[in-house]
Write a structure and sequence with these properties.
The chain is α/β, with parallel strands linked by helices and 244 residues long. The chain contains ten helices and 13 strands. It has helices at 21-29, 68-72, 85-91, 108-120, 134-143, 160-163, 167-172, 187-196, 208-215, 232-243; strands spanning 5-9, 33-40, 46-48, 53-56, 59-62, 101-105, 127-131, 148-152, 175-181, 199-203, 218-219, 222-223, 226-229. The strands form three sheets. It has an eight-stranded parallel β-barrel, surrounded by five helices. A two-stranded antiparallel sheet has the order 4-5.
Length: 244
């Protein structure tokens, strides 16, 4: 039986401090891949951090107005260190050859910077960029023909069949997969996505019951291709139980 790829959401934020190198290393140690959030600092350094702002005590910081040095000097209550993408790639360079990175980007500039860095590291084939905006996907595809692109559907659509957009456009963009929220992971939607010719990814899979439901979805011998979870350790165990 085919096994879905597991992406540790923000490194597996249910078990460790999200988007940090120790968290990423813990995920890799149990044999899963990495999902992270990327954005640029004022001095054009690509970092792994989700929120656009940082609040320390009563003071707010806007990341896009801070240099990397400014960020490194901020003292977090949990003592985290915000890593650059380059630091992450270096830290995980000697890990599993099957390691992949799924990257949420803040804007087009972030995506272009990621492509440049991944090309320099010669790991472009290990990178997937997930994005809701098809115009951003278009710009990324124009910039690079090889980067793997995943179209994340917006949360408020009622039917994949009616709202997936122009399938021909997505095909022309060579979209790798359609990424749907966990509550919409059912056999009907899996069938539609596969029949459209895409892989099916599912994000927000965090409870055991939801994990089991998504792992058991099959259609014409196909399964959900990738699952995003805050608890990769639990999902790895369930995947092993169900696939054997």
């Amino acid at each position: 039986m085919k096994k879905p790829l597991i992406f540790a959401h923000r490194g597996g934020m249910g078990n460790c401090i999200e988007n940090t190198i120790p968290c990423f290393k813990s995920a890799v140690k149990i044999g899963v891949s990495i999902e992270t959030d990327l954005q640029l600092t004022k001095d054009n350094k690509l970092i792994c951090y989700h929120d656009h702002h940082i609040k320390i005590d009563s003071e707010w910081y806007d990341i896009k107005k801070l240099t990397l040095v400014d960020l490194k000097n901020i003292k977090f209550e949990d003592n985290r260190e915000i890593p650059t993408t380059i630091e992450v790639f270096n830290a995980l360079a000697n890990n599993a050859k099957d390691l992949r990175y799924s990257c949420d980007i803040r804007d087009i500039k972030t995506g272009l910077k990621l492509i440049d860095i991944a090309t320099e590291f010669d790991i472009l084939d290990k990178i997937e960029i997930t994005e809701r905006n098809r115009n951003v996907l278009l710009k990324l595809r124009e910039y690079n023909k090889k980067i793997k692109l995943v179209h994340t559907l917006t949360d408020n659509i009622s039917s994949i069949n009616d709202n997936i957009g122009d399938v021909k456009i997505l095909k022309d963009l060579k979209i790798e997969a359609i990424n749907i929220q966990s509550w919409r992971a059912n056999i009907k939607n899996l069938k539609q996505i596969i029949d459209f010719g895409f892989k099916c990814y599912v994000w927000g899979v965090n409870s055991k019951s939801r994990m089991k439901k998504v792992l058991n979805l099959t259609y014409n011998g196909e399964v959900v291709s990738a699952i995003y979870t805050d608890y990769p350790d639990i999902l790895v165990k369930l995947r092993k139980e169900i696939s054997t």
